[in-house]
Amino acid sequence: MLWYTLLLAAVAAERLVELAVARRNAAWTLARLGVEYGSGHYPVMVALHTALLASCLTEAWLAHRPFLPVLGWTMVTVVVLAQALRWWCVTTLGPYWNTRVIVVPGARLVRAGPYRFARHPNYVAVVAEIAALPLVHSAWLTAAVFTVANAALLAVRIRCEDTALGRVSVA
């Protein structure tokens, strides 16, 4: 359990780094007259991701979920690959990447990096991580509940992003 707790702490620390990058990028895009869309669902997204980390730890500790090596190490691999994909998205979008939906008028859609292969590759990483992170330590209930909750949130979020990105030129 100690190693799982440390993994969750590392993911939480990574999230704080993401928020710092997002804050810096938001200032950059807003200074260029960026327009924010869908700010109403943002607190729900933050709450979901925060509750996921807490629930992973709570279920693993209170329900005495075991670490099953084949499942656990496979899920650690998925979590690491999800982080790699997420940061590939962040570096590809540069100052345009954000945890909020902010569009700069006149900007062009990015079609480089992982965006050559998928319209929303960051959400591939999010979906994989939400399913895999709890399963590292057999927290199957957390994996199921947060996968369903995230699907509902992503339905709103992707619709919001697509609407916002519809106002951007294609490069």
TrEMBL record:
Its main location: membrane. The keyword Transferase applies. Keywords: Membrane, Methyltransferase, Transferase, Transmembrane, Transmembrane helix. It is found in: Membrane. The keyword Ion transport does not apply. GO terms for biological process: methylation. It is a multi-pass membrane protein. InterPro entries: ICMT_MeTrfase. Pfam families: ICMT. GO terms for molecular function: methyltransferase activity. It comes from the Bacteria. This is Isoprenylcysteine carboxyl methyltransferase family protein. It comes from Streptomyces flavochromogenes. The lineage of its organism: Bacteria, Bacillati, Actinomycetota, Actinomycetes, Kitasatosporales.
